[in-house]
Specification:
Elements lengths: L2 H17 L12 E2 L8 E3 L1 H9 L3 H12 L5 E6 L3 E6 L1 H12 L14 E5 L11 H19 L3 E5 L8 H11 L3 H6 L1 H18 L1 H15 L3 H24 L14 H13 L3 E4 L2 E4 L13 E4 L2 E4 L2 E4 L7 H14 L5 E5 L5 H13 L5 E5 L4 E2 L16 H19 L5 H21 L7 E2 L2 H4 L7 H18 L17 H10 L2 H8 L6 H20 L7 H24 L9
Parallel strand pairs: 5-6, 5-12, 12-13, 14-15
Antiparallel strand pairs: 1-2, 2-4, 3-4, 7-8, 8-11, 9-10
Helix pairs in contact: 1-3, 2-3, 4-18, 6-8, 6-9, 8-9, 9-10, 11-12, 14-15, 17-20, 17-21, 18-20, 18-21, 19-20, 20-21
The structure holds arginine.
The site of arginine (ARG) has 9 residues, from helix 12.
């Protein structure tokens, strides 16, 4: 049990004893981390929240609660301001918690009580179209969520829902037949297909008859023409091989690659079903789902306000020409994930621009009586230093492969400068960990909904909230253990550490919070909570390292400090691995 839970439980019992049946059944006891150490370690606003409901003065209610809490073995209590209850954790309790953490391979992170089957839909680039910055964000955030949800004991299924059935294939097929250089295709399928797409797209603008021919190729593909199906399949196969290479450099893996085309056969019956059940209807030849009035207009994804009026924006699920749409595929995908994977939760890590789309999809499911934990895990954009959408120097969309290469190259320079004597091979693998770590950490330390500026110098700096800073902290801890010829994984002691120095206490305070931080990330899919926690931990370790000699101390002080170091190393390692970031032992 975490300290937060322990205190929360005490509070709950105290409230029950004090108020009995007066305690509203809906009331949820909450104990939060205090924002400022002056107010202790944890804080609860229970008195203020309840005073209103049971019509009592908050301050005197707080006094009653504190009296009912009595003397706690874990913490001192006091009242502050209008009726906050502050908990100051006793050093002996921190020490005891560290002692049990030391013997716990999960470092105080309990497995979830109610494991779920969670499908996470992320990355999902489009074949023969550029993998843009949005796909980079999705790839990194989605992978971390999968790692964390798994670590919490859920059954996680990762699915790369690639866009493998779009109108772009008309142009690709035409280009394949008229323009393709097969040797290039084998070498770099993603870039080559993209180039074909761009060339043919440009050509179509000048020559309308080429555009017509492309459309005809698409129709042939859709109606099952053997030759076109063969070409299409090869494109997908080659693209997958290219993507796998990128993902494996990032140490990201998918359980499934069920692209859009996987659902083709399900679309017609699905639309028919929606018509039969009266959820969809014809409008101007198309089949659409309109609002059913369930939401207030402000919350209704099928309405938009214009000139003071609410106008319908239906979800179109079949075009007048009979073609199906992105929305149709996503409805079929949702069905499949529920029926086939028995998903309790389905999370879509996709840019904020698709907000309306997902709201509509989830709402259509509600109309069909299908409910679940469906989330659109949205994110903002990545900007260049000029605060405009991040582009290459010649204005092209940034390609993930190039970003990875550049990160590793730049990291290589940082590593060489820092430690020129390391063997070449080791330098190389460190540069890889630092470069890729830097990209990931820059992403994951942001509030996902805000835009952020892609800044090489900042993300590779050895100070500040960056991967290299955290990696360097880990290196520092490792070097302590190297000098003692011991291993941080295997340190054990017979008694809880002694915590005297304020810097020791502060480090302890952060270490014990690991078990509180990790589960909270999934409440709202916010990996930045973990990133900023790990940064605080590393900083606190540095202060401790400055203030408290480890190897030059003696007896139980030395032993206690080694315990703090070992736990710091283990939490950093476990925490960074949940973010998908590798920690080298030297750099
Ligand atoms: N391929 C889409 C895009 O690039 C993202 C797909 C996200 N997943 C989904 N089930 N719609 O925008």
């Amino acid at each position: 049990m975490t300290i937060q839970e322990t205190l929360s439980r005490h509070l709950q019992i105290a409230l029950k004893n004090l108020l009995g049946d007066e305690l509203p059944a809906s009331y949820r006891t909450n104990v939060e981390v205090a924002q400022d150490l002056r107010y202790g370690d944890y804080q609860s606003n229970a008195a203020m929240a309840l005073a209103r409901q049971i019509k009592k003065n908050p301050r005197s209610l707080a006094e009653d609660i504190v009296r009912s809490l009595g003397e706690l073995p874990e913490a001192e209590t006091e009242i502050a301001g209008p009726g906050f209850i502050n908990f100051r954790v006793r050093p002996s309790f921190f020490a005891q918690t560290l002692f049990s953490m030391l013997r716990d391979p999960r470092l105080g992170v309990a497995v979830t009580e109610h494991p779920k089957t969670i499908v996470i839909d992320f990355s999902a680039p489009n074949v023969a179209k550029p993998m843009h910055i949005g796909h980079i964000r999705s790839t990194i955030i989605g992978d971390t969520l999968a790692r964390i949800a798994r670590f919490m004991g859920n059954n996680v299924i990762t699915d790369n829902h690639i866009g493998d059935w779009g109108t772009q294939f008309g142009m690709i097929l035409w280009g394949w037949k008229h323009k393709l250089q097969p040797d290039l295709l084998e070498k770099d399928p993603i870039a080559t297909l993209l180039q074909v797409y761009k060339d043919v797209n440009a050509l179509c603008k000048e020559q309308p008859d080429v555009l017509e021919e492309c459309k005809a190729e698409l129709v042939k593909l859709q109606s099952g023409d053997d030759e076109n199906l063969e070409i299409w399949k090869r494109c997908i196969r080659l693209t997958k091989i290219g993507l796998e290479k990128i993902y494996s450099r990032l140490d990201i893996h998918f359980d499934y690659w069920l692209g859009e085309s996987f659902y083709n056969d399900a679309l017609a019956p699905l639309v028919q079903n929606l018509i039969d059940t009266g959820i969809a209807r014809e409008s101007d030849g198309a089949i659409c789902v309109f609002s059913d009035g369930f939401h207030r207009p402000q919350q209704d994804p099928f309405l938009v306000s214009k000139d003071g009026q609410w106008l319908p924006v239906p979800a179109i699920i079949r075009k007048a020409d009979g073609g199906f749409l992105y929305a149709t595929t996503d409805l079929a995908t949702l069905d499949y994930r529920i029926n086939h994977f028995h998903a309790d939760s389905i999370w879509y890590v996709v840019g904020a621009a698709q907000d309306k789309h997902f709201k509509q999809i989830f709402d259509v499911q509600r109309m069909r009586g299908i409910n679940g934990d469906f989330r659109h895990v949205a994110f903002g954009s990545i900007l260049g230093k000029d605060r405009r959408p991040f582009k290459t120097r010649d204005g092209e969309t940034v390609n993930l492969q190039d970003v990875i290469d550049e990160a590793i190259e730049r990291a290589g320079r940082v590593v060489r400068e820092k430690n020129p004597t390391l063997p070449q091979e080791e330098q190389k693998s460190i540069a890889q960990a630092v470069g890729i770590g830097a990209i990931k950490f820059a992403e994951l330390s942001q509030n996902r909904l805000s835009d952020y500026i892609f800044d090489w110098d900042k993300m590779l700096a050895l100070t500040g909230d960056t991967a290299p800073y955290l990696q360097n902290s880990f290196v520092r801890v490792c070097s302590i253990f190297r000098k003692t010829n011991t291993n941080f994984e295997s340190i054990s002691t017979d008694a809880p550490p002694v915590l005297h120095h304020e810097a020791e206490l502060q480090l302890a305070r952060l270490l014990v919070r690991f078990g509180e931080v990790v589960p909270a990330i999934l409440d709202d899919c916010r990996p930045n909570l973990l990133a900023s926690y790990l940064y605080d931990l590393a900083r606190s370790f540095h202060s401790f390292y400055e203030a408290c000699p480890v190897l030059r101390s003696e007896g139980s002080e030395r032993e206690s400090r080694l315990v703090l170091c070992a736990l710091t190393a283990r939490v950093l390692k476990q925490g960074m691995s949940l973010l998908g970031i590798t920690l080298p032992e030297r750099m």
